[in-house]
Design a protein that fits this description.
With 512 residues, this protein is α+β, with helices and mostly antiparallel strands. The protein has helices spanning 5-17, 22-33, 41-47, 53-82, 86-96, 102-111, 117-148, 170-176, 178-188, 191-194, 259-273, 306-313, 318-337, 374-379, 396-399, 406-422, 432-441, 447-450, 460-468, 480-490, and strands spanning 217-218, 221-230, 233-240, 248-252, 283-288, 294-299, 303-305, 340-341, 350-353, 359-361, 368-369. It has three domains: 5-194, no CATH class; 217-299, Phosphorylase Kinase, domain 1; 303-508, Transferase(Phosphotransferase), domain 1 (Orthogonal Bundle). The strands form three sheets. Strands 1-2-3-4-6-5 form a six-stranded antiparallel beta sheet, covered by helices on one side. It has a three-stranded antiparallel beta sheet with strand order 7-9-10. A two-stranded antiparallel ribbon has the order 8-11. Helix 1 packs across helix 4 (53-82) and helix 6 packs antiparallel against helix 7 (117-148).
Amino acid sequence: MPLRFEDLLAARVLSRQAPEKRSHLVAGLEAIREERSHKSLLAGLVDEHVLTMEQARYVHGMVERWKRGRGVAIYVHLLAREGVKGEAVKALVDVAGADADMNQLGDGVLGTGLLPRHREQQLRFQARLAQDRDHAMQLKAWLDAHRQQPGQPAAVPLAALDGGSARLDLSSMAAALPEEAQAIVRGTLSDADDELPGPQFRIPEWIDMSDPRTGKRVSGFRILGRVGAGAMGTVYLCDSQKDPQKPIALKLLPKDASADARGRFKREILANSFFGHPKVIEILDAGETDQGHQFMAMEFFDGKDLGVVLDAEKRLPPRRALILAQQCFEALAACHAAGVVHRDVKPANVMVSRDGETAKLMDFGIAIVRDLGEFETKVFRSMEGGVTGTPEYMSPEQAGGDAILEPSDLYSMGCVLYIMLTGRLPFESETSQGFVTCHLLEDPLPLLKANPELKALPKELPELVDSLLQKTPARRPASAQVVVDRIGQMLPKIEDKKGSTRGFWGMLWNRG
């Protein structure tokens, strides 16, 4: 996880309210900046017992209220510049309430007919663009200052985030920031930005609109912001003239990508062409841009990968874990029926919705596609040889370099279910080779020892996990569909405890 503007805001609040924790703030920000930590500042501080969960939620709430107020102030300034009367805007802010954001205020503008829809969408888009660019500029300023003078966790001008109040009045903030909002708009938006039409759908608040590509067109798609970036390229949220109401996720591969990366890209496109399923991220289009980037257009799923969720929550309530696992096994049943073996099932390749109830499998970049004959070796020659996959989740046959068939995916998904239920992997090792050895030779820690609380649940649960983690493929369940059915029989017997904590679930997105 890269350092986020929200981490700096949290550090600002804490440095004022708990100056004795300053060394922890510096260390936490340093760990994120140097990519030694994959968690937000608040999540890391809770893990290290520097903060309680309640304290972290309090700080998170302060940060989000400040961001909402700032966003509303920018939007209100744009409305005033458009000629909307201040009295009308103030009435909308008062009606929307103290916790409203610019989206709710914008809906009020549309509902009262103060602006035509296309123009209001344009102003809302510009307000988000200005806010995200301002956040990026402040983050860059801190990083630049930090290089010159390390150890300053909150050296960012945040005039509006002051005092110790647990609640900031949105109407007061919007009224108190006109000059600052004007300066932000003047410093972040260009004449070209004024001409950009707003999208016909709402951009999720966690999308980073400060990316330099925002507003540019790529092969019929207009980039609205960055979803995320990794070794296999950058993913952007887009819209298109062909279907303007449908959000699209566009993955762009760098022009200088390796042969292996290009092979994975082609394999993912090919594997997805063999089947479709509601629990698999759908690929809609693919090709090469005029600038030489390979691209893949996919359905946009407003969620986070399961790895991020588990970093935040540690483990999931059993019923929710089983619901998500069942959907993943449904996806595996469909791809196996089409002759496709995923070969890299892991939390990072499972997307989870905001409500935590829907899962979708993705990234078929190293999948095995049956019945391709010589085409398989010709197109994907660069990927042949050696052990391929993620050591923590690979099956014994995969770890041993043996033939990989459908039961391999069941084993990997068994590891995923195990970590969802217990908060830890079936095996522990400090090296990739150590995990390979464990999968080949060691017995996993029994599920009920890893999480004794599961003893109160039906015995079918540990029996299922045990069967999925069998070393011999023939001893695992006969198919993914069999697992789907077994989970379906278990679910009516399992209820999550009332009031069970959702951990940092709300902190995975900008609004909690």
